[in-house]
Amino acid sequence: MMKTRFIxxxxxxxxxxxxxxxxxxxxxxxxxxxxxxxxxxxxQIEKCPDWKSGHTVKITKNTRLDATCSYQQVSFSIEKENxxxxxxxxxxxxxxxxxxxxxxxAYSESSAPRSWAFSVWKSGVKIKNCHIKNYLDGIVIRxxxxxxxxxxxRQKKKVNLIESQLRANSPHNIIISNTLIENSHKHGLYVxxxxxxxxxxxxxxxxxxxxxxxxxxxxxxxLIKNSYFYKNGYSSYKNKKRIRTPKLPTAEREAxxxxxxxxxxxxxxxxxNNGKGAIFLYKNCFEKHQEPNQLPRFQYSNYNKIKNNRxxxxxxxxxxxxxxxxxLSHFKCGDPLMYKENGLxxxxxxxxxxxxxxxxxxxxFKNVMFGIVVEDNNNQLISNSFSGSSSxxxxxxxxxxxxxxxxxxxxxxxxxxxxxxxALKLNYxxxxxxxxxxxxxxxx
Length: 444
Fold this sequence. Notes:
Number of domains: 1
Number of helices: 4
CATH architecture: 3 Solenoid
Low-confidence stretches: 1-8, 11-46
Strand content: 25-35%
Largest sheet: 12 strands, parallel
Radius of gyration: 29 Å
Structural class: alpha/beta
Distance between the termini: 114 Å
Strand order of the largest sheet: 1-4-7-10-13-16-21-24-27-32-35-38
CATH topology: Pectate Lyase C-like
Shape: globular
Number of strands: 38
CATH class: Mainly Beta
């Protein structure tokens, strides 16, 4: 009996010792905690698809990433309608490294940036909550033009019919929201010809080499809203040499290039320290027209609305018909020549530019060298406010067009524009005519 009690006592003593030891170990590094950490880590990894560097992934279903996901040199081609791609904060990097090479430092062939993060071919697509960096173009909205359509447009045959067909079949109703696009070697967002109803909302585009957004010919009804554009337009990228170079000041680009694009709205955005300026409206002069892949522009940059935006530390804020007075002999234009004069290095050539019936309303300009420049007819400038240093708040007139049968800028409605604390810096040049004072009611 005594022996039995002794054995039982020893059993409980050993058991208590083991329990105590286990508690001591668990308090430092519990096996249960370690197992939980391993399971959690595996779950995180499984949330991130195994997409390999250098691959282009075709997206045909809704895709939702975990915020911890990070990909290098992976591209996504969206080829089905009504796809939702939600990054949830995941990072998409067009390079293997975190930052682009310095200017004049070439990439190797294997380390060169990928062409784009997203290539969108279909309508109804939503891209949101992504961090896109270091691609050539962050997002490209694609349009397919058949060889026959291309040939007829080059020959300027059945233009209205073909353009209607292309718009009907081009991507539309696309929303890009809460997305950061930075360090694009070319553009942040490139909208190809005839795409329409493309919305960029509550997003940021910073440090693009060329324009942050390029709206190509024939695009319509796009919305850029509540977004931020910073330090875009300062560098070029040469594909063959795989190298970035700085742009000359005369070649720096604007944050948003509106090239023969109409009925767009730019509302509630902030523009700061971009290359040549913020929003430029113009019609491409059919550049490099002898190259077979080039097409003329048929639509003008008309009926756009620029409202409730902030422009800070820009050289030019809004420029309507920004190429009306630009010397374009090196652009090899196919449009009819407007004006030619002899220059020190040969003939200087100027072409008609078109940006009519646009509205620039209730914007604020701070430390902008030239706030609003107007070089085409029938535009409205209403309730804009200017402050800080500037050369001119509003400049109206165009030099070379005015020399041709006095084709001056006219039909400009100015109303309730003002400068804080002093008189508005307003200048009509080259014979341009103000509308009657009963209509023009600025704070002068």
